Amino acid sequence: MLDDLCGTGPEGETAAPSGGLLAIAGGAGLGKTSLIAEIRKEAVARGCTLLTGRGGEQEQGVAFHVVRQLVQPVLASAGESEHRRILGTWYDIVAPAVGLVAVPGASPDPQGVRDGLDWLVTRFAVQHTPVVLIVDDAHWADGESLSWLSSFALRAAELPILIVAAYRPDELPAQASEFRRLAERQGSRPVTLAPLSPHGVGRLVHDVLQNSADDLFSRECWALTGGNPFEAVELIAKIRERNIKPHYANAAELRDLASSARGSGLVERLERLGPSPVRLAWAVAILGTAVDPHMASSVGGLGAEESVDAIQRLREARILAGRTGDPDRLDFFHPLVGTAVYRAIPPAMRVAMHGQAAVRVTEAGLGPTVAARHLLEMHPDDDRWAVQQLRAAARECMRAGAPEAARRCLARALREPPSLEERAEVLFELGRSRLLNEPATTVNHLQAALEEPELEPALREAITCRLAQALAHTDRMAEAAELVAAEGRSSSNPRTRLRMQAEGFKWNAFRADEEDSAARSRRLARLADHLTTRGMAERYILGLRAWDAMVRGEPAATALAYAEEALGDGLSWTDEEWGFEVPVMVALTFMYCDQPGRADELFSKGISECESRGWRGAHLSFGLTLLGYIRFCRGRLAEAEDLVHGGLRIAEGVGQRIPAQWFALGILMEILLARGRVDEAQELSDRYNYGQVVPNAVVYPDSETVYSELLLARGLRSDAEQRLRAVGRRLDRRGMRNPAWCPWRPLLAEALAQADPAEAQKVADEAVELARRFGTAGAIGRALHSAAKVATGAKSLKLLAEAVQHLERSPSAYELACALVDHGTALSRAGLPQDASELLLRGMENATTCGADALAARARDELAASGLRPLRLRAVGTDSLTAQEKTVADRAARGWENTRIAEELGIRERDVELLLSGVFRKIGTDRAGLPELLRHNEIRSASQAPPR
């Protein structure tokens, strides 16, 4: 594999360099470290750059312990300014994990840190190629390092980096399953080491003792060591030290020698060296790997001269390693020796020495995380200092993106126990540390925190809000809403009551089982109209009012007015206190109100904010998925599909059957159906059991409605009808009647068209009426188009023409393409080929630009069937406005009517309409949103312009 890495072919010819993973598996003492030493020598001889790390039995709980060994030598020679230059925007995300100075801030999620480490190591591999990254004793690597290594190793083949990992298969922890699968995957089996054969041990005996050993003596050496290379080498070394003749007559002396290399025999050998070497060896075992001699002396309670003598004696006895590597650090001769020494320390002494180590490393300035490793091994002792150190270590772990390590520290602090005044704070911190990966456990801790007596009001409010969030994440929306409602009623603080009202409105909006949505909407409307200030709670209430108005189908102008007030100078997506749900709802309100360009802008900013903070889990999944939905609404189907696939991949890494996954699946199915890929949509549904499970939370697009759309595409009208009627009953009961938000009525009309045309027309007319009440051109155009599908003759043609007129005034590019093709098809079949040709051609152009391949093909076939030769497409797939479009957009934004614009430019009014239609689709707005979006675009362009 070094040949592949260095680009050397089998005959010495030059080849393209390629990396990979070399896994070395074997039990203790079988020679993994020796094999790695040979690989290191060969790599150095070939000019490779080395990155090395090693797991430690005592450091398994120290987050990123191995990662820091790998990268700190790379960063050691530079200062903070150079580190910031190297890491760029990743600095604040990755710095705490690799042991660099970082300003206090929000905690990145583990995936964000892994992505940052990927970037750092990839950059190093490219700049210092070829690179060999070695991890010895990977079975003892901390979980965070092993998780990163497992994911990064998948990319090694694409980079000039060879990853070498040695481990004991039987000692890999349960949480290392990902690493095990990687190391043992088909086509890349690990190099598995086996014990030496009798012949192999015999060769060792002859080579080392350099005299004629008889075969029976060598055979006895093999039998006593089981062919274990470490034990065989140790036994042979002791035979040479004792000057035992290698004859079978002396075989009886071997048993005691063999036992001294392991377990109790090794401990007895250590004890014979005297108390000072014993205490020093214990201290090294307590402190772990690469131990500072002064620290070991202090923990062992030895003086300077006594320590030097003890170290020398331990090295001579092959208990401590010689001065190879770093002579100023102490390590055991072999990990087996360290394990035996640690286990031999009397339990009470072991606990006391860990306590001594915790104090000494703190005094040495090594930080609370290093001290916490020792505190975790101590018995609870009602020690306030220990609680403070463990809480500080938990904060460091959270800042480094290691919530599981933080959880261990806080759980131990809770057992110390903390003082009554601190107990609620520790429970709160413990709950927060587990929210993303164990929300159910979070609920237990936060409920316990809330039950603590005499809570400070601010802490009680924070606990309540986080507990409601945890309940919501575990699909207990009703409990979340009831919790904040009860807290609001019991609080005497007006700000707290307002905050609890905002939280209650938010969680009720996501409840699928809310019984009295109308009453909640009325309370929300009254409260929003009587707010006199604009604090964060007030803005969130206004944002929720905007969303509620949109979902219920109130005039879009009403929803937009509330959305603008809520938005103010911006809403953060990464505010840990307030959450990101309301900022997302505000942005989507713009999308549903025919201003997807504004929503696109807000989502792009929110996603960038999440990425800059290292939030690459559920938040980023939602962001990418819903940005894909916005692009879908703008008619950019290929872009939308890529974004939603990315969101779905992240969601699957977070968990199964979570809201982020439901959102992604529904949107992806809509996109696939729009692109004519019905079979793929069905496969997706089958794979995730999409149509058979109804989520307890409100998701959009509505999952039952999307599945009904799939059924219609497959011609299963009766099944679709039943589901859509159930959707109608569920949503009408809650007052959610906006067809722009959930088009169940238009779809039901289509399902009924053949079996009951009269009811189909009635349902379609209801949708048109509701769309007109909402008032956006896109909603009205889509409803009219659906009504035309269930009408006949002249009425259908009239409705299609009106649908096209409205959709031309909207940003709904794909819906416009559909209406143009259907209108052109209807005109062609009505005997009006010339009128049909222009519409079909425009529809084909728009469909091609959108990426709606099946729709474009249908338009092309219709043109051909009508005897019309499809012309070359005129559409240009770009978002850039032409000079004429810019002029028309500018005049329209100033409030000019189309007639006046046409007169000034000397063109037909119809040409103005078509130019504006292109503007709306390209920048993603209707006429009402044009001034604001143009202003935002101008500000953004000015900020991105290079300085003069």
Short recap of the structure:
By secondary structure, the protein is mainly alpha-helical. Strands 2-3-4-1-5 form a five-stranded parallel sheet, with helices on both faces.
Characterization of this structure:
There is one protein chain. This protein has 948 residues and is mainly α. Helices cover 65% and strands 3% of the residues. The protein has a five-stranded parallel β-sheet with strand order 2-3-4-1-5, sandwiched between helices. Helix 20 (384-399) packs antiparallel against helix 21 and helix 32 packs antiparallel against helix 33. It is elongated, with a radius of gyration of 35 Å.
The average pLDDT score comes to 89
State the end-to-end distance: 52 Å
Report helical residue fraction: 55-70%
- CA gyration radius, whole angstroms: 35 Å
Q: Could you name the ranges where pLDDT drops below 50 across 5 or more consecutive residues? A: none
Strand content: under 5%
Query: Which sheet architecture does the biggest sheet show?
Result: 5 strands, parallel
**Lateral strand order in the biggest sheet:** 2-3-4-1-5
Helix run count:
48
Any idea what the shape is? elongated
Please state the structural category.
mainly alpha
Strand segment count? 5
